[in-house]
Amino acid sequence: MRSLPLSALQHYAFCPRQCALIHNEQAWAENFLTAQGRALHERVDSGEPETRKGIRFERSVHVSAEKLGVHGVLDMVECDMQTGRLKPIEYKRGKPKPAPFDEIQLCAQALCLEEMTGQTITEGALWYGQTRHRLPVAFSDGLRAETLATITEVRELLESGQTPPPEYGKRCKACSLVEVCQPVLLGKDKSVKYVAVFWK
Ligand code: SF4
């Protein structure tokens, strides 16, 4: 089974075509938003582990869950030194979104930690740079089911080897791949389905 990078879940949530372009076609381009996000993560990742008030803060934690088929690097994991309980923390550049994309990515992190440690992880948190606040996230049965379904969808998409046709929308304005993707141009092109399947 192909192991998916955690970042693929986030890219898929943003746009399935972007996910396929990045993870199957190795396309990447940086724009202002991705550069800001990268700078934020570099700042978070560069800190040394530390312990404050009984909590150990581990940065850039590498995870790989074989059964789940997901791997990646977590921004931060908090460990309660008394109970040993783990809590994943993900840093985001922007603000909370209406759809639970960030929650799904965080829950996938928790599922990786659970497989690796045997621990049940009940809660994590998202920290948003734009609003500068921390949002607690409970890993409910519903969120877990949604996360597993998303992992399956991403795997099916990437294993199909097909790149979905572009669907132009508001998100394209924030997409670093807009030049590679050409949503307006290809969206009007009747041969786009042919291109999506055979132009690889
Ligand atoms: S430009 Fe739009 S359609 Fe193309 S990959 Fe980006 S978000 Fe998706």
UniProtKB/TrEMBL annotation:
Mg(2+) or Mn(2+) required for ssDNA cleavage activity. Coiled coil: none annotated. Signal peptide: none annotated. InterPro entries: Cas4_exonuclease, CRISPR-assoc_prot_Cas4, Dna2/Cas4_DUF83, PDDEXK-like_dom_sf. It holds the Pfam family Cas_Cas4. Its EC number is 3.1.12.1. The keyword Metal-binding applies. The keyword rRNA-binding does not apply. Its cofactor is iron-sulfur cluster; [4Fe-4S] cluster; Mg(2+); Mn(2+). Keywords: Antiviral defense, Exonuclease, Hydrolase, Iron, Iron-sulfur, Manganese, Metal-binding, Nuclease. It comes from the Bacteria. CDD domains: Cas4_I-A_I-B_I-C_I-D_II-B. CRISPR (clustered regularly interspaced short palindromic repeat) is an adaptive immune system that provides protection against mobile genetic elements (viruses, transposable elements and conjugative plasmids). CRISPR clusters contain sequences complementary to antecedent mobile elements and target invading nucleic acids. CRISPR clusters are transcribed and processed into CRISPR RNA (crRNA). This is CRISPR-associated exonuclease Cas4. The lineage of its organism: Bacteria, Pseudomonadati, Pseudomonadota, Betaproteobacteria, Neisseriales.
